[in-house]
Design brief:
The protein is α/β, with parallel strands linked by helices. Among the domains are: about 60 residues, no CATH class; about 100 residues, no CATH class. It has 14 helices and twelve strands. The strands form two sheets. The protein has an eight-stranded mixed beta sheet with strand order 6-7-8-3-9-10-12-11, with helices on both faces. Helix 8 links the parallel strand 7 and strand 8. It is globular, with a radius of gyration of 21 Å. The chain binds iron/sulfur cluster. Iron/sulfur cluster binds next to loops.
Length: about 350
């Protein structure tokens, strides 16, 4: 069994207008030492799904079902106290904006040391020493001095490093990073992604990285899960998804990755339309109102029948949720020349 095994996870919110199906039948596996990228637009169900892993929907009106097996233990079945103990110790989280998750009036070092003391019976002095050690490990210069700074005295990149130190101080086996670099400029973003990769090797944690940006996934993840409307619509190794994607929504995400050396005047191709309502999603394939390829599928199938997750044309664990016949040929002959003409010449 995998270290983390999520099976048919559903997170539904009953409202006066009906049921919001934020996550609707999500399954995946993740091993220690591996990184899974979960990609999709806002409202695709990425963050709701990871919040369920952290047990953050307990005592809300969310109805959560399925299985979340971490090292064989179903996190949906354990007590609140057990979940609290595991959160921060076995499972840690890095958020997009450290300013909103670090207390502005407490010194950075104290906050990191407290995260350690919650799970370890050690003196303040020992916890402070451990905090300095972690600040050093994440690349904060002069950590023995900076440990006494307040969050506002750190730059954005340094705050993100401090948050990573806080998340890793208890040596968690599962690390969830939710848009960890979105608020940072491109250079700092690359440094933070490098740091995360480095630390993963040292700590041998399983890492989930939640992002709307396939570029981040290309840097970090071994496997990719693309979410749309609360469901997985494509899954596979990062290499496979980046080079042989077979679902039109993934094609749209790929065409909206900004290239570092691109002509600044060049326009990205956004996916037309808006993400689906999770309260009353479109019938059939949730993506059909925005899909340029639905007319290729005969019998109005895209509008009337929900596609199942089926193996991609090259096998190897690749799964896609789409009725389109021969998507690999459509991608090679029609999509790739539009989004990456240089690559077509290289192939
Ligand atoms: Fe487009 Fe139809 Fe495939 Fe959905 S099932 S992505 S609408 S071609």
């Amino acid at each position: 069994m995998s270290f983390l095994s999520v099976r048919d996870l559903r997170v539904h919110f009953p409202t006066v207008d009906g049921i919001v199906k934020a996550t609707d039948g999500l399954s995946f596996d993740l091993e220690k030492g591996k990184t899974l990228g979960i990609v999709g637009e806002s409202g695709s169900g990425k963050s709701v799904s990871t919040s369920a892993i952290l047990g953050l929907h307990r005592h809300t009106n969310a109805v959560v079902s399925g299985e979340i097996l971490l090292d064989g233990v179903d996190l949906l079945k354990i007590s609140d106290e057990d979940m609290r103990r595991r959160r921060g110790r076995d499972i840690a989280m890095i958020f997009q904006d450290p300013l909103s998750s670090m207390h502005p009036y407490y010194r950075v070092g104290n906050q990191i040391a407290e995260a350690y003391r919650v799970h370890h019976d050690v003196s303040r002095k020992a916890a402070r020493a451990r905090a300095i050690e972690m600040l050093d490990r994440v690349g904060i210069p002069q950590p023995d001095r900076r440990v006494d700074d307040y969050p506002h005295q750190f730059s954005g990149g340094m705050r993100q490093r401090a948050m990573i130190a806080m998340a890793l101080i208890n040596n968690p086996s599962l690390l969830i990073a939710d848009e960890p670099t979105t608020a940072l400029d491109v250079t700092v973003q690359a440094q933070i992604l490098d740091l995360l990769q480095d630390l993963q090797r040292d700590f041998d944690a399983a890492v989930m990285i939640i992002t709307h940006d396939l570029g981040v996934v290309a840097e970090m993840a071994h496997d990719v899960l693309v979410m749309y409307g609360g469901r997985c619509v494509e899954y596979g190794s990062t290499k496979e998804i980046l080079t042989h994607p077979e679902m039109p929504y993934t094609w749209g995400l790929l065409s909206s990755i900004p290239e570092v050396d691109a002509d600044p005047e060049a326009k990205l191709v956004p996916i037309p339309g808006n993400p689906p309502s999770l309260l009353s999603p479109p019938s059939g394939c949730h993506f059909h109102p925005r899909c340029a390829y639905r007319e290729r599928v005969p019998g109005d199938l895209c509008r009337t029948v929900t596609p199942e997750l089926t193996p991609g044309s090259r096998g190897d664990g690749h799964l896609k949720r789409c009725h389109l016949a021969n998507p690999e040929i459509v991608y090679e002959q029609e999509v790739l020349p539009q989004i990456a003409p240089d690559l077509v010449e290289e192939r």
